[in-house]
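Example record

Each entry pairs one chain with its bound ligand, benzoyl coenzyme A.
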Amino acid sequence: METQQQLDNFQARIDAGEKIEPKDWMPDRYRQQIIRMGSQHAHSEIVGMLPEGNWIGRAPSLKRKLVLLAKVQDEAGHGLYLYSAIETLGVSRADLIDQYLYGSAKYSSIFNYPTLSYADVCVIGWLVDGAAIVNQTKLAQSSYGPYSRANIRICREESFHKKQGYEMVAKLASGTPAQRKMVQDAVNRFWWPTLMMFGPSDSDSPNSAELIKWKVKLNTNDELRQHFIDRTVMEAEAVNITLPDPDLKFNQETGHWDYGDIPWDEFWDVVQGNGVMNRERMKARREAHENGAWVRKAAQAYARKKKLSREQAS
Ligand code: BYC
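Structure tokens for the complex follow.
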């Protein structure tokens, strides 16, 4: 039973900018919200390896293969930082993964789109990692200590990912007509799905008010989306890429770029599991998990053996 006094004390700590640590008292709803959002974030990092992993063997040079391989490995690491952070709330990694592979836990909509050309990998680095940085730089200031610290580490690596993606986009955009066409086509396909990564507009976001009150999220979905658009318009202009939105227009009064209607029906369709790649992504993740059962079993047996020999030695 949570008392009003406990809830008030908790809110006072949040308002004073204190971090909440695993052993601190917290409302059950706060715990559940971080588990929901943080585990969705972890699953996204893991499933996010698939679209780009698809191109490791086909990247155009040894250098590009190495860069892509390193980036995809980083994403696995991000998933592991996040699972570790969320486990501090008393939920096991095995349960979280179970909810994702066989239950109703979500992962980011963006990874349900196919990567049709090598330029898609470049554009994912620029736009998708760019959007992730805008979102995660704020999550790095989140009130839950372990989640905020995981995001600090993630952001350092994501900024490298974004730079390498943008560099490749710039290279293709100043290349042959075929390369230019390929990269523009990738931007045309990824622009709107990237904007959807920030979540539904504020009027349709049931979790935002509570998460902002508790400083888990520092900004609303629309605020972060606007920030991303404002900085990406300039980056696109600098490499002569057209963003596929005829309504993009600088608004002198607000100081921001106005943009066209986001196709929200498509977003909800993807979130409900009906995107082009949803089924294939889940199948690949389930197979990887089931094929890896023997590794987990061997690791657990090894840990038990080490524990036993430590106990015998002491
Ligand atoms: N996709 O009330 P709302 C990466 C769901 S990977 C799917 O606004 P909230 C990378 C939402 O869960 C990092 N579902 O929710 C990796 C909620 O449903 P439930 C990706 C979405 O939590 C490899 C419902 O819609 N980043 O960078 O306040 C290669 C209502 O939404 C989405 C993260 O995971 C979506 N896009 O805000 C390259 C960031 N949006 O759970 C790159 C961490 C919303 O109530 N997450 N939903 O059933 C967040 O920041 C927040 O959870 C969101 C949503 C802004 C996404």
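The pocket of benzoyl coenzyme A is lined by residues 36-37, 40-41, 44-45, 48, 75, 106, 108-109, 124, 128-129, 132, 135, 196-200, 205-208, 211, 221, 271 (CB under 6 Å).
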